[in-house]
C-alpha cells in the first residue's frame, strides 16, 4: 500500500470499536468522545467509523456472498461433508431463500450499520456547529461526505431489499422505524431519498481523488447517481423520472466523470487487482484493505483448494469453497486474458512440483475441473472429484506468504464500469455506444480479442467478463430481465425474487416492518 498509513490506522481503531452491527435500532446516544473538532485531520479521524464498516464488504457469509452466489458467476457447491451449512448456499444459488436465511439477515445488519454510523456522525457534526465547537466552513464538507456515504449504504439497501425504513434525522429516530405498507411506494421513496442526498451534496465534497483515497469523492457521488438512474426503472417501476429519461439522466452523470479527465483505463486489466493496486488509474472509490490496519479481504481463503496453501505459501489453509460455473468460465474468447483470473487445471507449488490432494483417496493430483458434477454433492464415493470441482477465482493477485487478510484494495467503483455504463446508456437512448463498448476490448487491454457488436446479449456478457466478483452481476441480471431465468442447477425463479426478504429477526424485533411481497 502506498497511501497514508496513519489513515489506515485511524480506520482500524474505529473498526475495533464499532464492529458490532446495530440493525435498525438507531437510537443510541450520540457519542461524546469528540467534543471539539477544529482541524481537518480531526474530522478525518472521526470519519473512520463510517468507513471501517466497509472492512466486512468482501469477506464470507454476508453481503458479498449474498450478491455473488445468487448469480450465474459464483457458486459454493456442497462438497460431501463440507459447505452444506444447512443448505444456505444452495438456497442462495437456487433463489429459494426465505426470511430465516442467515446471510440475508447479516446483509441487512451490515448495511444498516453503515446508515447508523453515518447518521450519528452527521448529527454529531451538526451539533458541534450549533454549539460553536466547530467552524461551519470546516465541518460542512464532512457533513456532505457523510450524506453521500449514507446514500451509498442506502443504495445497496434499495437494491437488495427494496422497501426499507428511511433514517434522515438521527436525533428523532423512533425505536422501531417503519417502512411503507406499500412495497413499490416505499421503494420509490427510498430512491428519492438517495437521489436528493446525492444531488444536494455532490458539489460539496472533495474532487481530489488522491487526497481522499478510501473515501467517497465527487466522482463517486456521480457514479452512484449514474447507477441509481440506470437501475431506476427497476427501483421505481416507472419508465421516466420527473418527465426525463432514466437513460439520459444516467448518461449525464457519466459524462461528468468521463469529461473530468481524472480517470483512464489501465493498459493491463490486472493492474486493477494487484497487491499494490492503490495507484490504479481506474479506481474511483476503493476499500483500502490492509492485513493490519483494515483486515477482512479473504477471497483467497474463500475460493482456493486446501492444497493450494503450498502454491502460495499462505500462512493458513484455504477453505475450498467458492467456484465459478463452467458456463461463465467458457464465456471468454480465446486470447481474453481476463479468463486468467479463473484457475483451472493442474496446480503446482512454488518449486513447480504438482500439488497432490493428500486428503483424498488415492492422493490425486490437484487438478481443478471446470465442470462441477452437481450443486449438491453429498456422495463421499465421488470424494476426489467433488473436492476438485469448479474453476477458482484468481482475479485479485494473491501475495506469496499472505496472511488470512489480503492487502489488495477492493475497487467498489471503477472507470471501466463507467465506460460500460456509457455504452449502455447510449445504446438504450439511440442504439449507439459502440465506441465506448470497443474501448474496453481495444489496445490489448484484455488481450488479443476481436471487436464484437454492441447488442443486449454482448453487453450483459461483457459486463460479466469485465466486472466478475465486483458485486454488480446480480444487479445487471435484474436490469436486463435475466435474473429469474434458469441456469446451471437453478430453475426459473419467481418474479418477486429480485429482492430478498426482510429477515425474520428484524421483523421479530420491529413489528412496524412490512415483509416484501411473496415472502409472507
Structure, explained:
There is one protein chain. This protein has 520 residues and is mostly helical. Among the domains are: 5-220, Serine Threonine Protein Phosphatase 5, Tetratricopeptide repeat; 303-393, no CATH class. The protein contains 19 helices and twelve strands. The protein has helices at 5-18, 40-52, 63-69, 88-94, 102-130, 136-160, 183-201, 218-230, 232-236, 246-260, 299-303, 309-312, 326-329, 383-387, 415-430, 434-441, 456-467, 473-479, 504-509; strands at 74-75, 78-79, 240-241, 244-245, 283-287, 323-324, 342-343, 345-346, 367-368, 376-377, 392-393, 410-414.
Question: How are the SSEs ordered, and which strands pair?
Answer:
Blueprint: H1 5-18, H2 40-52, H3 63-69, E1 74-75, E2 78-79, H4 88-94, H5 102-130, H6 136-160, H7 183-201, H8 218-230, H9 232-236, E3 240-241, E4 244-245, H10 246-260, E5 283-287, H11 299-303, H12 309-312, E6 323-324, H13 326-329, E7 342-343, E8 345-346, E9 367-368, E10 376-377, H14 383-387, E11 392-393, E12 410-414, H15 415-430, H16 434-441, H17 456-467, H18 473-479, H19 504-509
Parallel strand pairs: 2-10
Antiparallel strand pairs: 1-6, 3-4, 5-12, 7-11, 8-9
